[in-house]
Specification:
The protein contains twelve helices and 14 strands. The chain is of the alpha/beta class. The protein has three domains: 3-69 and 95-180, Rossmann fold (3-Layer(aba) Sandwich); 183-360, Argininosuccinate synthetase, chain A, domain 2, CATH 3.90.1260; 370-407. The chain is elongated.
Length: 410
């Protein structure tokens, strides 16, 4: 952007290396006032150090918002109702947080009279797209500053050198190398960079922060009962919890049993492949239980249609289109399908695995024992009816076979 047009900017600020450098760079390159915005979305960090770092830079307007409940209730749970998984493996832990942060960046800009927002996403990644598409969807006229696309600090080592010159503290691993690039919230934590950039290198033990190794998990399995109401988990073992409490509790028990690890090479929206290690313990448990609950309560064609829509829905989140009309349309369909997804699922957690042991719904089950039984069904289902059903469905296959015989006689 043109520097002369920016008087005040709201920076998405974590207090870490990248955003601390960006804060200083914005002050120098743009000569503007900076408002820091820090979102508590359950990243498990004390946010007071971020406030203190901002104050050291002379920042007068420091905004910190506790968004944990909104994050889980209005972003994570709607996504889990859709069973959304990108490319069959990634549970979208980073992607689903970006539209919420963008929402509050825009809101803070309006409240403080800022001209623009700024973020620390690199020019190679997905997050720049997610932040900016979300911001433009909510505030079409907002200015956006993306330092990684403007400055010459094009590597982690250059960032470290810049930080050293300006007295910005950087945490390093004990061997003195650059730290992993990590992102955490209530749904997951991700790890990228360093030796993980070579997909032939297996992640070492330090690459995992939340979950114990499945090999070191307890030798005794643990069973829990998860209750669903309208597609959302509402209680564990009969104890009711709000969304944030639920996800936190499942994260703790899932991490203890080594659940939710994923080592993935994924296709970024900008065109390149990326390797990352992700930990999503609570989300993995909910996902497995939710599909089990749907198997009992959803009509067959509704369930199959949901499965067809899921890859598109997952891609919309991954690419940054949370506020798009097509995502909102699909969400309305998904939520309509969840009215009858009510009941309980019993799960066994053991050494990285989530096994469904049982499921039941007292009010909404479509499973009828009288019909499906291998024993006498007292006329609930006439097996002779299947003859006509099969013949009708075979008709087109017979016609195609006859045509083939005419074209290629034996």
């Amino acid at each position: 952007m043109e520097n002369s047009k920016i008087n005040k900017v709201v920076l998405a600020y974590s207090g870490g290396l990248d955003t601390s450098i960006i804060l200083k760079w914005l002050q120098d390159a743009y000569g503007c006032d900076v408002v820091t915005f820090t979102a508590d979305i359950g990243q498990g960090e004390d946010l007071e150090p971020a406030r203190e770092r901002a104050r050291k830079f002379g920042i007068r307007e420091i905004v910190v918002e506790d968004l944990r409940e909104e994050f889980v209730a209005d972003f994570v749970f709607p996504m889990l109702r859709a069973n959304a998984v990108y490319e069959g493996e990634y549970m979208l832990g980073t992607a689903i947080a970006r539209p919420l942060i963008a929402k509050y960046l825009v809101q803070t800009a309006k409240q403080t009279g800022a001209d623009a927002i700024a973020h620390g996403a690199t020019g190679k990644g997905n997050d720049q797209v997610r932040f900016e598409l979300s911001a433009y969807a909510l505030a079409p006229e907002i200015g956006i500053i993306a330092p990684w696309r403007e400055w010459d600090l094009t590597s982690r080592e250059k960032l470290l050198q810049y930080a050293e010159r300006h007295g910005i503290h950087v945490e390093k691993k004990s061997d003195g190398g650059s730290p992993y690039s990590t992102d955490a919230n209530m749904l997951h934590i991700s790890h990228e960079g360093n030796e993980l950039e070579n997909p032939w290198n297996a992640p070492d033990d330090q690459a995992w922060a939340w979950t114990v190794s499945p090999m070191d998990a307890p030798d005794r399995p643990e069973e829990i009962v998860l209750e669903f109401c309208a597609g959302d988990p509402v209680s564990v073992d009969g104890q009711g919890m709000n969304p944030a409490q639920m996800l936190q509790w499942l994260n703790e028990i899932g991490s203890r049993h080594g659940i939710g690890r994923a080592d993935i090479v994924e296709n970024r929206y900008v065109g390149m492949k990326n390797r990352g290690c992700y930990e999503t313990p609570g989300g993995t448990i909910i996902h497995k239980a939710h599909r089990a609950m749907e198997s009992l309560t959803l009509d067959r064609e509704v369930a199959h249609l949901k499965d067809e829509l899921m890859p598109r829905y997952a891609s919309l989140i991954y690419y940054g289109y949370w506020y798009s009309p097509e995502r909102q349309m699909i969400q309305a369909m998904i939520d309509a399908s969840q009215v009858h997804v009510n009941g309980e699922v019993r799960l066994r957690l053991y050494k990285g695995n989530v096994d469904v042991l049982a499921r039941r719904s007292h009010t909404d089950s479509l499973f009828d024992e009288k019909i499906v039984t291998f024993e006498e069904d007292a006329g609930a289902y006439d097996q002779a009816d299947a003859t006509g059903f099969i013949r009708l469905n075979a008709l087109r296959l017979k016609l195609a076979a006859n045509r083939l015989k005419q074209s290629y006689p034996l």
